[in-house]
Amino acid sequence: MTHDLGGRSVVVLPDLHGRSDLLRAATGRYPDAHFLGLGDAIDRGPRSLETVQLLMDLHAQGRATLLMGNHERMMSEGLHWYRQYQGTQDMGDYRRAMEGFQWWMRAGGDTVRREVNPLTLEAFPPLLEAYLAVLRRVVYVTGDGGIHDELPAGPCVLVSHAAPPVKHARHPSPLSAALWLRPFEGPFPMPENVTYSLHGHTPVPTPTRLGRHLYVDLGAYETGRLAVVELNVQALPHITVLAGPGRPELGGRYSRFGEPLQAYTEPLLGRS
């Protein structure tokens, strides 16, 4: 699948984790852009449902391409097996459904209970199920703004939640590796025509470059800092850090590696 955006700029949004206020700020700052979500829009933060609704509205307007993060992957596990159980009535499927649901609850899904009560597989929010249905794993962005599922022939940027899609001892499926691997599990080989790859998943105190891999998750849900990335296929991207309400000092706990990327900070005064 390829989306031709007619030359519109592509702006990447890393892990939002329920920060709908930062999402609104980003869409207001870039009213004509096409947004590429890195996944992990849910859990941890205060407004997962509102965040997903805003993303789905953008997707319906043709203004957003949405990727799966590891938190969406965990959310999908129990639901997948429960839908299968509804067809098979196999208690093994039901057990896997309950185990998958608890996996998500322990990893952050329990925060969604503050917004959805009751939150069960039997009454799973239709909005979240629809959101899961549109998510992609890995895309390649070309200089004309095209977003491709397959590696194109010319220069491009690889975008996925955690890492490039590679075979790895812990994740034999490359598409699984793209959701879970951390920088220290590399290096990750990439095709020569990929200028660089862009990821969230591993929180960093400042946008960071490690070889040809860029990491831009600033822990927005707790720090209030969202790195908004304007893709450039020919060179490093332009990065603006939207600084809203939060505790930016918590970013000091995050992993330090590689070299910092140039970024500009824009305070969001008066936003909540």
Automatic annotation (TrEMBL):
Pfam families: Metallophos. Residues 10-205 form the Calcineurin-like phosphoesterase domain. Signal peptide: none annotated. Transmembrane segments: none annotated. InterPro entries: Ap4A_hydrolase, Calcineurin-like_PHP, Metallo-depent_PP-like. PANTHER family: METALLOPHOSPHOESTERASE (PTHR42850), ZINC-DEPENDENT ENDOPOLYPHOSPHATASE (PTHR42850:SF4). This is Metallophosphoesterase. It comes from Deinococcus navajonensis.
